[in-house]
User: Fold these one by one.
Assistant:
Number 1:
Amino acid sequence: MAAVQETLVWDAPVRVAHWALALSVAGAWLTAEAEGWRLLHITLGYTAGALVLLRLLWGVVGTRHARFVDFVRGPHAVLAYLQRLAAGRAPRYLGHNPAGAVVIVLLLGLGLLVPLSGWAMLNDLGAEALEELHELLAQAMLLLVGVHVAGVLLASWRHRDKLVAAMVTGRKRAEPGQPGIRWSWWPLGVLLLVGVLGFWLVQWRAAPQGGLVQPERVLASERASQDED
């Protein structure tokens, strides 16, 4: 048997954005209902929104498998893929498959709408209706995250791929006629990581007493100060 060959598929900016976005979304969800974690929730929400914007840009000018033209397909191609998947004959893609691409595009869209609606709430642009919209969009995003994870596990099992590991190393098993990318763009990945960590540091330093996670006594003091004003 020929030796299994791997090729570089996911560049460093894609991988850093993926995991930073996953961490931000998970953190924002965990802190959504805790008043004392409000500033951290806002910081993570803004981080997620900025990462989505950068991913959209990279989807236009980035490497082969990061570009939308490489994996976004029309409804006919998506339906055909799902039919073949149900029949156990789904082809293996080096990048995203057509069904996974739909979920990714929807996640990116919600990744913009959720922080945007949260920003509007902070600026009192929509009262209760906007708050309900924000929660509804967040729930829809969590549902899609679940679909995404299930799809990754299914594809990993069906094609014997290590898709989670590939999003860490950037490398996947390649078959004849499946070209990878030449360079990982690691300096840009490092710059993106530094930017995320730098933003968190700035937010932490700019936060009032208590930092991004504020104890109840600090919150009570702030409310009292606002009432006096």
Number 2:
Amino acid sequence: MEKLIITAAICGAEVTKEQNPAVPYTVEEIVKEAKASVDAGAAIVHLHVREDDGTPTQSKARFKECIDAIYKECPDVILIPSTGGAVGMTAEERLQPTELFPEMATLDCGTCNFGDDVFENTMPMMRDFGKRMLENDIKPEYECFEMGHIDTILNMARKGQVPGAPMQFNFVLGVPGCTPATVNNLCWMVNAIPAGSTWTATGIGRNAFTLAAPAIVMGGNVRVGFEDNLYLERGVLAKSNGELVAKVVRLAKELGRGIATSEEARRILNLKPRI
């Protein structure tokens, strides 16, 4: 079994300091949380960016400022900018970080309910996102919230509309209105992806660590962070993303699985070495 790749989703687009004062908004806060995550054992930082007042943005300039600042502190980390942005953003808004030619970026694989909102990812939008990633040599992390999302993206890959094998999937389970975060559902989705693919499990809210444990023993990878969950345990707010990463490291140690460095993660994910 390969070592465990831990992704830290450090701020997201929706969570606020009112919910947890440690949620980062400013460039300095984002860099601090990225470094805390890497120091604790994360090989990847999944990156949304915010304005200083917390407003979510997909601004190319803001992404560049944050990416450059993170690389100064964490030169080897793998960064996965979000092309999901926030609910209601246009496709062109959401695609801005791909203009910076990151080694990876997210690609959401279908429209779904997001609590009381609808997260729109139409087929034309997804073809546009796939075309951009093919043109810019970006490896997608395919974010799947439902089983149908897997079938959709595999069909697109067969048609050459999105990058194909080897593919990296992120199963985001437990979003209100989407697939519940159960072990059965995780197994169902893992069994639907092609041999040779890599995958990550993301449990939302109280599901963060109950989904992490089966992912670790199944040979998958784990994402945690303030985007998905603000608590270290029931009733205890996490003081940093690093605390959430450190808890996954402890789980992996108890379950006998080593932790991948960013260099090892690049090999596992079939990425080129970072120069």
Number 3:
Amino acid sequence: MQKYTEVKKVAIYGFLGNVLLLISKLTVGFMTHSQSMIADGLNSAGDVFASSMTYIGNYISSRPADHTHPYGHGKAEYIFSLIISFSFLLVAFAVFRSSLNSIIVGTRFHPSLWLSVTAFSTIVSKFFLYAFSKKVSVRYDSLLAHANAEDHRNDMFISSLTVISIISGHFGLFLVDNISGILIALWIAFSGFKIFSSAYNILMDTNMDENLSKKFCDMIMSIEGVDHLDEVHAKPIGLYFLLIVKISVDAHISVYEGHNVARKVRASLETENSIKEVIVHINPAQYHPKRMNDIK
């Protein structure tokens, strides 16, 4: 499937790029004692882990359905996205603690041309990685690719702060370096929470959003023979939905005619790419007192 091939590329390109940046950032960061560059390097360590999780999660979710997983392995994408969000939060904590300690101790870094070169190289490389990951995430609605795109965008922001701290260091404003590290930590934590929230909602079988629900309800009510709609529930299955529909039909029609209405409802809904399977339950139409009053 094309989607899994493209997400695999996102993981591989991200892994290779992040390994190179990790080595260069930490080497330069520890040589110059720059907290923002060290923070940037620790973030790249988290990026390497995230790229690895993307590759593994994409591999598992691409496996076809089998007798133990009749709806496929799509939810692996969200499980591994959840793991990635945890890595973001751990990195954020480590960076925050390191930067706060530097403020207390009063650590200063040594301005260097290599700091500027490393920071600008990161911004350029991460821009291309972000553009590719974002394109894949939008085209294939992939949370794993989206998590990587968010990660690459964060790196551009982080490296921009690093550039600011380097420039400030040349003017003796070393506190900016430590404050930049704290801002980096908060941004990473925010991104991690957003990814966690998206994955959590899917794994907890949260119902579809209101716009999608209204669209499906309108499709159901447009089918001839549907008296009214009782309930519509959607169970997320990876990237798709298992739709459970309860409709009421004329109580006096035959069982065959009732099931024919259900077949039309199912056929209409299954034309949607986001729906994996539709289960339709038929009830006899009941006229409640309120409805009878409306008729009169």
Number 4:
Amino acid sequence: MTLVWKLLKQHISPLQLAGFLLANLFGTWIVMLGVQFYRDAIPLLTQDDAFINQNFLVVSKRVTTATTLTASSNTFSTSEVEDLRKQPFCKRAAGFTSSRYKVSASMSLQGGTPLQTELFFESVPDSFVDVQQAEWNYTPGDENVPVILPRSYVALYNFGFAQSRGLPKVSDGLIGMIDMGIFIHSRSGGAQFRGKILGFSNRLNTILVPQDFMDWSNERFEPGRTDEPSRLIVEVVSPADDAIARYMQEKNYDVEDNKLDAGRATYFLRVVVSLVLLVGLLVCALSFYILMLSVYLLVQKNTHKLETLLLLGYTPARVARPYQLLTIGLNIAVLVLAFILTLLCRNYYTDMLTLIFPQMETASPIAALGAGCAVFAAASAVNCTAIRRKVIAIWHRKA
């Protein structure tokens, strides 16, 4: 084997092999990176909310230019709520209760620089919130108030405030380390509380507190005032029911359907990843073609030597083996380098994604490695088969 290789390697062009290596490396890397990114990103778009059931919809009245100019009310009357409850697709419905007083808050992580801002509170009946009753309650006089924050607020904090000031990023695992001060201001006085953050919601774009706290605080700081709800939370039989869309369109209601947005984003992600994989496979195919041309040219230059070896009794398999091992070795190098590049790129984009999705957990790279191995196996099989056929063709011609 060593003597055969020494005889046949004289016409090998390092530049041609380097061209194949780079082209195949680029194509394989694109394929592996596309698979890995899809595996990392798809859970962010399809994950369930930990606090709000998927059969719950948030309904509000559509705000148009006409309603804005005429200062028309966008709240729901009692009759409108009752009409919604009578619909076949509706199991139950209730209004959001809003705070009637001013609220400001400060948030910091382990005593760091606090973020101070004005906020507002809302609540829904406790039966709509999927939290243990022992955690989701408030007794007048308690200093701690359970709070559920929208995940979009956390993304703004991580991407804007924390990043610009070099502060730690907030994630689900750091909930217990967040210090939240709540300050209530009203005509009848004020009070200070400590927010106990239970988690982050993907579907509710509001700061949620227990109904008990909302009822008590509204009566304590703004007594004698009642407001109709501007939003409703509705439990439906099936969110995919066409009757829901027809009813909302007829009543000019809007549904805050984050699931629909996530579905569109998921579809778009799949299309983009498919296109990226297609480009990567095309580059790999071109690199296979480059290698085949290089090997065919090498075989052609060594035709006389190959004929001599075959006449001396060497089998076609033994003569083709040095070229096959060469291509397999190059493909192994491509696979290893592409996998390393994929891991490096994953570390780069996960740092950016965790600013927007603090709960992000990277997927195992096994799927990406499997895609790379599939490309390696296909390339090696095609190359080895083509080389063997070329050598057999020379053998038959001499025979």
